[in-house]
Amino acid sequence: QVQLVESGGGLVQPGGSLRLSCAASESISGVSAMGWYRQAPGKQREVVAFVTNGGSTNYADSVKGRFTISGDNTKNTVYLRMDSLKPEDTAVYYCNIVVVTPGGHSDLWGQGTQVTVSS
Hints:
With 119 residues, the chain is mostly beta strands.
């Protein structure tokens, strides 16, 4: 079974930067989109950003202008560059890959990586 392996989380001061990475354990065909979600304590998981196989990107309003998503469909890897981090960005960040299937689509998820923004 394909696994998504994330890295790059950690503790950073407000205003700092981090870069998250996500790589699939094996090649995946039929990828329609790759993205990042996050879940803060006591809150629901929310979409942060995603990139389609056509290269279109979308961002949550709360991260526009600060975060940049990029992906490599040939390697099934996706990155999230996070700048000007704020304490409210603190959350567990999850990588997501959407795969087209005969019945619709399937979601693959990483195990999550903790991002903590604090002085």
